[in-house]
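S., here's the first fold you wanted:
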Amino acid sequence: MAAARKTFDARLSELETIIRKMEEGQLSLEEMLKLYEQGMKLHQSLSQELDTAEKRMLELTGSGLAEMENAP
């Protein structure tokens, strides 16, 4: 992947645009399937990034609590 990865917010915005287009109901079946596939890929990458962030926050919180409990 030569191009820089889009930010979380940019990908979320792109997913929201896809959803709006699909909800309008003005697309052919082929266009709908193409957008659905793009949307699912975006959803997967966004979910993975959120999961990673959540795990990191839990690690930080767990570490912070352990350090505070052991402090004099």
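And the second, which I think is the more interesting of the pair:
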Amino acid sequence: MKLHACPILFITAIFVGFWGSTDSRAADEGAHTPTLGEHRQPVEKHTHPVGSHIHEELRQIKLWLAEIERDSERRPLFKEAEPSEELFPLQTSRKTQLNGGMTLIIQGALNNEIQFGGDRTDGNLSLDMILSSEIRDGGLLIIRGDFMRGEGLTRLPSLFAGGVNADIEDFSTGAPDTFHLIEALYEQTWDSETFRLSIGQIDLTSYFDQNQFANSETFQFLSPAFGNNIAVAWGGDANGYGPGLVLHAHPVREFEINIGFFEGDGNYKDVFDQGFWIVEVEYELYSGDLEGHYRLNYWSNESNHATLLNPAVTLTKNHGMGLSFDQAFTEHFGVWGRFGLQDGAVAKYDRHASIGLELKGLPGRSEDVLGIAVGQTWISDDYKTVSGFSSNEYLGEVYYNVSVGDGFYITPDFQYISNPGGNAAINPISIYGIRGQLDF
């Protein structure tokens, strides 16, 4: 057989021989592997008679293929990827958590006048989802939103408290079965969480006016007046959410300070104009396993507010202060309270106070919780003038949270409201209800 009769075999032999011998020698002898731009050393060749050259090339091919096979066993062409700290947690799922809760609330009204909807029973279902991921050391990404179906019991007289169900969101931009973004923020902590910065879409009540006995509408009181201080004009959108940042410092165990800046209307326009800011100082009291928290805050909402006596005047801000405490006396009993002041020239009420207690672990029911609260909201003098109303609004609530199983709770609830919206001419209203909560 002549050499020119098999050019393909000859070219293949040269190609395989060139790459295979070079790679195998680099792997077996630890030789330097040339990089792009370097010159490779030519493969050493031997002179053979023409008639035996093809046989020698075939023998070399077999040797080179064997070397390639051995080399591939030592160094797999495709290496299985190992989890690495260099990868983000969203890729590894090792530091990412997805939690949530589903809440069903049914409420009925008694003695509700026909002009406000009469005695009726309404409900709502909400699904809350929270995604958190530690995307770097001390850096946490948080995304929280909810999906709601049903408007709940809203056909009632105007209330200073804003309603009887704090789980109801305002879906003014769409139907109440639309996903609602609550928070999308980044938190960075330093020095073992002594300092923290949170920035993004924020719910300020997640950071300010906290209370271990009166803060969660899915587990504790349903009335908005007992979930947060209603004498704070929180800013943000209709639900109190919007862009902002919070600075947190906890230099010693007993004290911490939070400073927050928030957009006034939550629409992401003119972010630094007419904003909302708040400063809160907290003292923490410890006695064994028992805790107490005492908070003082001052806030200012710089967005334009119309005065009650002259609505044409809108270049007025609202500002005020708030007090809050919760104190556990035993592992089964604790009390809490709130007090707030705001500008009565732009607000229908200028003061609000509430106080309550929590009992946990009744005989035979170690995980059940009983909560009782009463509150009063003072009508402002200017609103008395423009409305003709002259009474303060009183309200009370009692709930009993029954632990049915792991993360599943049933809560009967009862509320009583007198002088709704400061109008003594309206009959007192009773609100009965039941809440089902599933956490996952």
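Why I say that: The radius of gyration is 35 Å. Residues 1-51, 72-85 have pLDDT under 50 and may be disordered.

Talk tomorrow,
H.
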